[in-house]
TrEMBL record:
SUPFAM superfamilies: PLP-dependent transferases. This is Aspartate aminotransferase family protein. Its cofactor is pyridoxal 5'-phosphate. InterPro entries: PyrdxlP-dep_de-COase (IPR002129), PyrdxlP-dep_Trfase (IPR015424), PyrdxlP-dep_Trfase_major (IPR015421), PyrdxlP-dep_Trfase_small (IPR015422). Belongs to the group II decarboxylase family. The lineage of its organism: Bacteria, Bacillati, Bacillota, Bacilli, Bacillales.
Length: 507
């Protein structure tokens, strides 16, 4: 019979986990060395942001490599097997000409933190599982609430990103309204009878997750009333008043107003001060979606554009966009920590009420998820190592690059730029020779964007503005220079002219 004191000579799974034994240390060193050698090899040979392959080709290569890999292959065999199908076939977001979406190159300090996050594998739900990490997250939240000018009662929690934070803002708004208006506890009893009258207001250019959240919250996407934007793509205050009047006439119950600080396409910022005033005088919860524009707290030239955000009831910030963190990393802030009562649920095994009495902090009380990553560590490490001065320079560089690029494109005869003075760092434009009819311009620009992607020379985005197809640069990368933009624009022009010629020959 084995006794529990008996030690075995042959310990199982020794080289599969990191532990202090020689095999554990060796295995860990091997992982770090082999992976970094592989990545250095890949990145030293990246000449363009994308290999250019079509989706079907990549699907086949992935499936092929999955079927051909053996069970239990060594790490080095594995790295060899995924070299082309996964590593080289990926989008290289660090490349200067990867300028499509709000998809950033990750900062190295964030990557260093990410390595520690995985290894420490703390879980942010209860203090017992994140003994030090809990306080790092709290410190980061307190840094953020101060930077945003929120009051002392403010609080927040890290999230997977903007979608989750917007959902949480509207969840708290919904439950707080139902309590005030009907004395209804939604957490316990579900939505009250009159819920179909509940409405959320936001601009027509707000992020689609406002509608998605409304669906998920049981209100339905049609609970969202979109308000027209002005010439600068900002929510129009006169139209907001008009919408409120209509809602009041029809007996609807508006309860939340979502302001956007940095729309996905134009980077426009709603007049936050005025929104706060309207929200206050109409009893609306003001949620500000600053997933993109929240980084202005670190800007020098643009920080003033955040004026009014301190009056919001809740705020969304994303760190995996303009804060350059590896995905995923976001935060949700509230101006009154009592709002988190609507997400709190006591579980005996995790966050019993007795913990609170003893002053033990269990962050699960503030989140809609339980097991949660120590993502706060990434932005903590980046701020410490990069410093706010360099952050500011990086962010401001992208703003001035956007402005210079917009002027550069605007001066070209065959192009049309919609935002010659970009609010943040996106530029919306198209190849638009004078004699080409509107519907042809749409297919022309669509095919330019696709051709660039499949040549792999530049990855740019396309979007629709009033049903017309436009091209978009999102200039997040602080290493992108005006010469890069110049060269992409030249490629666009060449592709456009070639495409036009092809069409004329066919006709
Ligand atoms: C990116 C973005 C979101 C969604 O955030 P995720 O982090 O992708 O979930 C929401 N709102 C705005 C304005 C965004 O730019």
């Amino acid at each position: 019979m084995e006794s529990i004191h008996q030690t075995k000579d042959n310990k199982p799974f020794e080289d599969l986990f990191f532990h202090k034994g020689p095999k554990g240390i060796k295995a860990y060193e091997d992982v770090v060395k082999q992976v970094s050698t592989k990545l250095i090899d890949i990145y030293s040979n990246v000449n363009q942001p994308y290999v250019g392959k079509k989706s079907e080709e990549i699907r086949k290569e992935i499936q092929g490599s999955l079927h051909s890999t053996k069970q239990e292959e060594s790490l080095s065999d594995f790295l060899e097997a995924i070299d082309v199908p996964i590593l080289r076939n990926s989008l290289h977001v660090t490349h200067e000409k990867s300028v499509a979406h709000l998809h950033c190159p990750p900062l190295l300090p964030g990557i260093a933190a990410e390595m520690m996050i995985s290894l420490l594998n703390q879980s942010m739900d209860s203090w017992e599982q994140s003994t030090a990490a809990t306080y790092v997250e709290q410190e980061m939240i307190s840094w953020l609430t101060k930077r945003f000018g929120l009051p002392a009662e403010a609080d927040g929690v890290f999230s997977s990103g903007g979608s989750q934070s917007n959902y949480m803002g509207l969840l708290l708004a919904r439950d707080s309204f139902c309590e005030q208006h009907w004395g209804c506890n939604v957490q316990e009893h579900g939505l009250p009878e009159g819920f179909k009258k509940m409405k959320i207001l936001c601009s027509e250019e707000a992020h689609f997750t406002v509608q998605k959240s409304a669906s998920q919250l049981g209100l339905g996407a049609d609970a969202v009333v979109t308000v027209k934007t002005d010439h600068h793509h900002r929510l129009s205050i006169p139209h907001l008043y008009e919408a409120l009047r209509v809602l009041s006439d029809e007996g609807s119950l508006p309860f939340a107003l979502v302001g956007t600080c940095g729309t996905t396409d134009f980077g426009s910022i709603d007049p936050l001060d005025e929104l706060a005033e309207v929200a206050h005088s109409n009893g609306l919860w003001l949620h500000v979606d600053a997933a993109f524009g929240g980084a202005l707290i670190l800007s020098h030239t643009h920080a003033y554009k955040l004026n009014g955000i301190q009056l919001a009831d809740s705020i969304t910030v994303d760190f995996h966009k303009l804060f350059y963190q590896p995905i995923s990393c976001g935060a949700f802030l509230v101006n009154d920590r009592r709002s988190f009562n609507y997400t709190n649920h006591h579980a005996d095994y995790l966050n019993p009420e007795s913990d609170e009495a003893e002053g033990i902090v269990n962050l699960v009380n503030k989140s809609i998820v339980t097991t949660r990553r120590f993502d706060a560590f990434k932005i903590f490490a980046s701020l410490k190592i990069v410093g706010t001065d360099q952050f500011r320079e990086m962010i401001d560089h992208t703003f001035s690059l956007a402005k210079r690029s917009a002027h550069l494109i605007d001066r070209l005869e065959l192009f049309n730029v919609l935002n010659v003075n970009p609010e943040l760092n996106t530029i919306i434009f198209r190849f638009q020779p004078g004699d080409v009819p509107e519907d042809e311009l749409n297919t022309l620009n669509h095919s330019i964007q696709q051709r660039l992607l499949h040549e792999g020379t530049a990855v740019i985005a396309k979007t629709k503005v009033q049903k017309a197809t436009y091209l978009k640069f999102t200039l997040l990368n602080p290493r992108t220079q005006i010469q890069d933009i110049h060269s992409i624009v030249k490629d666009i022009e060449l592709l456009g002219l070639k495409e036009l010629e092809k069409r004329r020959i066919i006709q």
